[in-house]
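Quick question, first post here. What does this chain look like in 3D?
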Amino acid sequence: MLIGLPKEIKDNESRVGLTAGAVRALTRRGHRVLVESGAGLGSSIQDEEYRASGAEIVADSADAWAAQMVVKVKEPIEAEYRHLRPDLLLFTYLHLAADRRLTHALVEN
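> Answer (accepted):
Ran it through. Tokens below.
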């Protein structure tokens, strides 16, 4: 499976959805992982650590979002809605009660 790890862009969010160790576990099982450059910096994980764990570093968030599965910490914000699509498996925490627009964006896509 192609797995994408975009940078978190929600205000005050510095965590990342996958550690380098998690990437290593996934790539050892045959998955391909695309990590947006700088995605792990807020969690003190450098691009080189991801690369050494088998990830491919991509410069643009759209490349990470183009994967079959996207792993995030926080729900998508409005600027990320354009990446939602019917065949996307989104692995993240969702707080839908607080955001009607996000709920509709997810249902529509």
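The mean pLDDT is 95.
The domain at 2-108 is CATH 3.40.50.720 (Rossmann fold).
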